[in-house]
Amino acid sequence: MNHGLAIVFIVDDDEAVRDSLRLLVKSVGLAPRALVSAQEFLATYDPLQPGCLVLDVRMPGMSGLELQQQLNARGAVIPVIFITGHGDIPMAVEAMQQGAFDFLQKPFRDQDLIDRIRRALEKDRANRAELGECSRIRERHEMLTPREREVLALVTSGKANKVIAADLGLSQRTIEIHRAHVMEKMGASSLAHLVRMVLDLEQSDGQGATESDSAS
After folding, report:
1. Spatial CA neighbour of 98 closest among 64, 121, 127
2. Rg, C-alpha atoms of the chain
3. What is the pLDDT of residues 45-76, one digit of tens each?
4. Stretch 31-52: mean pLDDT, rounded?
5. How far apart are CA 7 and CA 117, in angstroms?
6. In the chain, how many H helices and how many E strands?
7. Distances (CA, A) of 129 to 87, 133, 173, 194
8. pLDDT at residue 118, as a whole number
9. What pLDDT score does 114 carry?
10. Which of 37, 89, 98, 194 has a CA that sits 20 to 30 A from residue 134's CA?
């Protein structure tokens, strides 16, 4: 797949619906890919591929809700828009509670779906930018020595160099050197920037632990 091009995945077991949605998406200059089942989507899903997922709730075999649960277990960030019939509203509400981006009840206006797709693609771009930044912060953090990580933790907790020196049994000048190395390796322009990086990293790690617990 072309990881630079966002794809609107359409998963519906009804061929007429798939073709209609594919043509609608294509008509507004977006790139569609229509699939017949949740299993087919999972078998070809590439987490690096930007895009969004337009998904029918009720399908034979694996339902749309079960597909969403599989994606959640994999830590997937792709936004999901559910298409629902009147009787599927409780399922759609459950899907939203599990992180779905939006849902549309049939019959719906073409423009309503396009509007949601555009918002979902924007959400996907924001998600991926945030994940990419966290990944870069984590890589920089791993470059720090154990001592530099100690200094980082104490600096971002608000302690002054003199206090950190006393806590670690080092000279204040040594702490200043470690602190300068930390700022350089982390690519931080200021103490506030450094604190923001650490908070983002902690939040990302916390979300990862929560997703792992939910999957198990």
Report:
1. 64
2. 23
3. 998 899 999 999 989 999 999 999 888 888 78
4. 94
5. 10
6. 9, 5
7. 37, 6, 37, 18
8. 97
9. 97
10. 98
**DSSP letters of 81-127?**
EEEE-GGGHHHHHHHHHTT--EEEESS--HHHHHHHHHHHHHHHHHH
Mean of per-residue pLDDT scores for the chain: 89
Task: Return the pLDDT at 206.
Answer: 67
DSSP letter (8 states) at residue 9:
E
Q: Supply angle C-alpha 155, 159, 161, rounded to 5.
A: 80
Residue with tokens 């423009």: 111
Cα(178)–Cα(140) distance, rounded to whole angstroms? Answer: 15
How much is the pLDDT for 177?
A: 97
Neighbours of 187 (CB within 10 A): 12
- Closest by Cα among 213, 211, 190, 206 to 74: 211
pTM: 0.69
d(CA 156, CA 195): 5
CB environment 113-149: b (16+ within 10 A), e (fewer): bbebbeebbebbeeebeeeeebeebeebbeebeeebe
**What is the torsion angle, in degrees rounded to the nearest 10, for the CA atoms of residue 193, residue 196, residue 201 and residue 203?**
-170
From CA 27, how far away is CA 50, in angstroms rounded?
Answer: 20
The pLDDT tens digits for 137-185 are 999 999 999 999 999 999 998 898 999 999 999 999 999 999 999 999 9
Q: Are strands 102-105 and 7-11 parallel, antiparallel or unpaired?
A: unpaired
Residue position matching structure tokens 């043509």: 23
Which residues lie across from 79 on neighbouring strands? none
